[in-house]
Amino acid sequence: MGDRKVIVFDTTLRDGEQTPGVNFDKDSKYKIAKQLVSLGVDVIEAGFPAASNGDFEAVKNIAENIGDVVVAGLSRCVKSDIDKTYEALKNAKKSRIHLFIATSDIHLKYKLKISRDEALKMAVESVKYASGKFDEIQFSAEDASRTDWDFLVKIFNEVVDAGAKIINIPDTVGYAVPKEFEKLVGYVKNHIHDKDNVTISVHCHNDLGMAVANSLSALESGAEQVEVTVCGIGERAGNASLEEVIMALNTRKDYFNLPHSINTREIFSTCKLVSELSGIQLQPNKAIVGSNAFRHTAGIHQHGVINNKATYEIMRPEDIGITTDHISMGKLSGRNAFELKLKNMGYELSRDEINLAFKKFKDVADNKKVVNDDDIKVIVDDVILNTKSFKEGELWG
Ligand code: KIV
Ligand code: ZN
């Protein structure tokens, strides 16, 4: 495989927000977007502007303030959505509309209740209508992995002829298996018009636990863009996890040899932030960032790791930004040590939040000899919850 750069399209703020129970407000979206820039993603899908006024404002705010990264907004293939997306993205340095329509027979028949030809017409007319309004047009064939391959290629070619430059192959319901998905991507790649100027993207869901495996297979098969979410959050069982895809590419560089622009040292703090703001706790055995990911329990394993970490660790925790700081926190610890501890634990808090957390920490430290990382986590969770409900209280009077 060559050394083309993988384009990382992050959809934490759009598909990630479709996680049941998750709702990012404007401030939370902006905080996450800023962290995604530090992480080095190429495209931030900031939301679905036509879905609600709140999301429209959140996407607009990111588009206007975030800087050089490409900002994408999701849009159905209807004029009113395209207009809303334009209003939200028009001041972005680099804007991308992400148009989608379902293409599988089951979605056409039971959801959209339209024919293949009608879907084709809506897709092409929408791409034409969007042309000139955005820097880039991406088109997704929803439920592509259950779509007739020839119809899929037909609709992709027509939208490419109409002006789409990125075509996305979603495994919307997490139905694909890696070898089959690899073949599908290869098939699309071989049949697409203007291949040298079109970017092929994949977007995999995790219903069968294969989102990351399918994404990696697709990259092997020539996909240039991968759509991911931080911690794999998303609709139902979630999306391909950014940290898993990236650390697979890094750890098995010998096999994939695919560069990307992610600064892996920002992974841990990004996951922490998304977990805090989404309220989703990471399972302890979550690959890469779970609390057990670098823990060794069996005596034989501990013995191996003491002699040479590589016996049981295929990645270095510091490469994903996990630092073991050996700072023991207690009542004599000062503010600097506390702030350093928060930073090492991956928290990015506002001044007010730090002040409140430090005060609570001192109260706990008065009654406990050592305040460990778990205690600090409880303190910070409490502070974030309090400031969040305070803000909501302000909003609702
Ligand atoms: O899963 C899906 O098909 C999507 C599309 C909107 C790309 O999220
Ligand atoms: Zn999706």
Primary descriptors:
397 residues; alpha/beta; eight-stranded parallel barrel; 15 helices; 47% helix; 12% strand; disordered C terminus; binds 3-methyl-2-oxobutanoic acid; binds zinc ion; amino-acid biosynthesis; acyltransferase; Aldolase_TIM; EC 2.3.3.13
Structure commentary:
The chain has helices at residues 26-39, 53-65, 79-89, 105-112, 116-130, 149-162, 178-191, 211-220, 242-251, 253-256, 267-278, 299-307, 335-344, 351-367, 373-396; strands at 7-10, 43-47, 70-76, 94-102, 136-142, 166-171, 199-204, 225-228. The protein is an alpha/beta fold. Helices cover 47% and strands 12% of the residues. Mean pLDDT is 93; it is low at 390-397. It has an eight-stranded parallel barrel with strand order 1-2-3-4-5-6-7-8, surrounded by seven helices. The protein binds 3-methyl-2-oxobutanoic acid (KIV) and zinc ion. 3-methyl-2-oxobutanoic acid (KIV) is lined by residues 15, 74, 100, 140, 142, 168, 170, 172, 203, 205. InterPro entries: 2-IPM_HCS-like, AIPM/Hcit_synth_CS, Aldolase_TIM, LeuA/HCS_post-cat, PYR_CT. Its EC number is 2.3.3.13. Pfam families: HCS_D2 (PF22617), HMGL-like (PF00682). This is 2-isopropylmalate synthase.
Mean pLDDT: 93
The termini sit apart by 58 Å
Structural class: alpha/beta
Largest pleated sheet: 8 strands, parallel, barrel
Report helical residue fraction: 40-55%
Poorly predicted regions: 390-397
Order of helices and strands: EHEHEHEHHEHEHEHEHHHHHHH
Strand portion: 5-15%
**Gyration radius, to the nearest Å?**
22 Å
